[in-house]
Amino acid sequence: MEILRYRAFTTDDETSGNPAGVVIDAEALDEPAMLAIAADLGFSETAFLTAISPDAARVRYFTPRAEIAFCGHATIASGVALARVRDAGPVVTLTTNVGPVPVEVTTEQATLVAPRTTVEDLTGALLDDVLRVLRLDRTDLDPAHPAALVHGGNLHPLVVVRPGVLARLDHDGDAMLALQDAHGWDGTVPVVERLDTTRFASRNPFPRGGIREDPATGSAAAGLGEYLRAGGHIDAPTTIRVDQGKETGHPSRLRVDIPTSGRIRVTGAAAPLA
């Protein structure tokens, strides 16, 4: 077994990217041991890889609190790690709890083919609850982009806000954790601002992952891609860029390829964590 530390969705900034643990050859670990290692590493997610071959592996993801079904940035980190330490690729199919996820890998970046993405309306009392824990109200929302529940491997309540709102976001962490626990939301709560046709800025509170805010969230980016396509907010096929993590001190960049139909693709660079 080998425990690696990576950062995913990096830029040229040495502090960029979302840290993730990648545990290679984790066959000897049971679930409590995986959880203990994830808690000891202290990252929002750690990936545990078993049954590794040049083109496939089984993966499970753990936060410091619990196992979750899927994690985008730990998938990117795992793909690059496998290319670097096992010469895997060019495509590795990861068997996750939400199904097979093909990952195109190099020693510097990876592209995941997201699990099936869906979009549901987020309205009424549930929207009010989300806004309450975000310390926002309905006047802060972008009227051209209604709130939604998006699924990109995990379920995310997504809200799109007017210019200027993202910079002053200051969510209630305890209340958000209680809301996430009550609804079983394993994913982040992405708050997004549209900067232009294909550029977006995002902040992702994530107390359920043991941190206040996630620097880069691949599953939320996939969900955003599906949201834009399904709602007619973008002309597919196209590619969008999502900037995230500046407020955490870890600026990150995610590329989202949105086809006319079919599965969303999310790309990011990754490197070992110093």
**SSE arrangement, N to C:** EEHEEEHEEEEHEEHEEEHEEE
Report the span from N to C terminus: 20 Å
CATH architecture of the largest domain: Roll
Q: What is the overall silhouette? A: globular
According to CATH, the homologous superfamily of the largest domain is: Diaminopimelate Epimerase, Chain A, domain 1
Backbone structural class: alpha+beta
Binned strand content: 35-45%
Q: Strands of the biggest beta sheet: in what spatial order?
A: 1-2-3-4-6-7-8-17
CATH class of the largest domain: Alpha Beta
User: What number of domains?
Assistant: 2
Structure report:
There is one protein chain. By secondary structure, this protein is α+β, with helices and mostly antiparallel strands. It has two domains: 2-112, Diaminopimelate Epimerase, Chain A, domain 1; 118-267, Diaminopimelate Epimerase, Chain A, domain 1 (Roll), CATH 3.10.310. Helix content is 22%, strand content 36%. The protein is built from five helices and 17 strands. It has helices spanning 31-41, 72-86, 124-134, 173-183, 218-230; strands spanning 2-10, 18-24, 46-53, 56-62, 67-68, 91-96, 99-105, 109-113, 118-121, 148-151, 155-160, 191-194, 199-205, 213-214, 238-244, 252-258, 265-272. An eight-stranded mixed β-barrel has the order 1-2-3-4-6-7-8-17. A hairpin with a 2-residue loop joins strand 6 and strand 7. The longest helix has 15 residues, at 72-86. The model has no long low-confidence stretch (mean pLDDT 97).
